[in-house]
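Entry 14. Ran structure prediction on the chain below.
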Amino acid sequence: MTNYRNHDDRGQTKLALAAQVVGMPPLPTHTPYGLIVADPPWQYNLRESDETHRGRTPYPNMGDAAILDFPMWQLASDRACYLLLWVTNNHLPLGFECLKRWGFEYKAIHHWIKTTKDADLESDRPKTRMGLGHWGRNCSESFLVGVKGDARSFSSVGLTNVPNVFYAPVGEHSRKPDQFWAIANRLKGALNEPPAIELFAREPRDRWDSWGLEA
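Output, C-alpha cells:
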C-alpha cells in the first residue's frame, strides 16, 4: 500500500476505502448471469504518491494478479454469457489475458472517443479531449466484447447498427457515458432480459445487479 501524506485528500480517501474491503458483500452467485459489465480498478504505480498528479484514481486499485484471479466463473452462465470489459489503453494486453483466464472468447473491441463537454457530437469531427500519456496523449478508452457458451453475435440477435466507435464527453473519473449504457441495455433487451450485473460498480443501476466497493 502506498504511503500518502496526511494532507493528500485523494490518497487518504483511497486508504479509507481500502479499509472497507473487509466488509465487502460476497459475490452474488445465486443465479448465473448472461450479461456482465466490468470496469476493474486497473493499477497505476507511476507518481501514485504525488498529490499533484491529476491522473491518479480516486479509489483503491487492484494488482494485475488479483484481477486475473477474479472468480468470474462464479458469475458467468456456462450456457451463454456476454462480457463487456472496460480496459484502459495501458492495460489492453492484460485485458485480453483476463478474457482467456476467465474463459471468454474475444469477439470485438469498441472505442469511446472522449470529447470535451462542449463538443458538437453531431459534427464530423467532435472536439476530442486530451488526456495523459507518455506515448501519445490518450483520447480514448475501450471495452472488449467476450463471450462464452452459445452466445450469438450482435447482428444475430438483431443489433445490426451498433458502431464500434462512439463519441461522448468525459464526466466524473471512471464514469462511463450514457452512450455505452445505451449499447449495454440494447443488448440486454435483445437477449430477452437475462440476469445482468455491473462489477466494480460505483452506484446502483436500474434493472442491473451491482457489486463493488462504492456501489
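The beta strands are 35-38, 80-87, 105-115, 140-149, 165-169, 196-199, 209-211. Will compare against last week's run tomorrow.
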